[in-house]
Design a protein that fits this description.
- The structure is a single chain.
- Helix content is 53%, strand content 14%.
- It has two domains: 42 residues, no CATH class; 58 residues.
- The longest helix is centred in the last third of the chain and has 28 residues.
- The strands form two sheets. Strands 1-4 form a two-stranded antiparallel ribbon.
- The two termini are 24 Å apart.
- The chain is α+β, with helices and mostly antiparallel strands and 111 residues long.
- A hairpin with a 5-residue loop joins β2 and β3.
């Protein structure tokens, strides 16, 4: 299903202020003032939503494997905490690395 909405870059005017401070034709909507998208495009439009989805899937898999390992192996409490810490640290490292790479590449569509 296709939807049309005012362009978020130019607020529907068709003109966006460039880095030099001069209004120019909006690069996102090509001066039309509106963009057309499908319902699926709206959800996955930003890179931020993709990384959030990745994080949620990572945590689901991590906690599933953690629960299975607890039921199979008899781990003591300290080891369980260490495993939880390592899993969350890995996720934080992946997330921060992704955001740093986006920032270094000059891509301004992080959020």
């Amino acid at each position: 299903m296709k939807h049309t909405q005012a362009c978020p870059t130019c607020s529907g005017t068709g003109f966006a202020r460039g880095e030099d401070g001069i209004d120019d034709i909006c690069p996102r909507c090509n001066g039309k003032g509106s963009i057309t998208f499908t319902s699926r495009d709206k959800v996955f439009e930003s890179s931020f939503m993709k990384i959030v989805l990745f994080c949620v899937l990572f945590l689901i898999v991590f906690y599933s494997l953690f629960a299975i390992s607890i039921s199979i192996f008899s781990l003591n409490f300290t080891l369980e905490i260490i495993i939880l810490f390592i899993g969350h640290a890995a996720l934080a490292t992946i997330l921060i690395s992704y955001l740093m790479l986006k920032a270094l590449s000059g891509d301004k569509s992080i959020a």
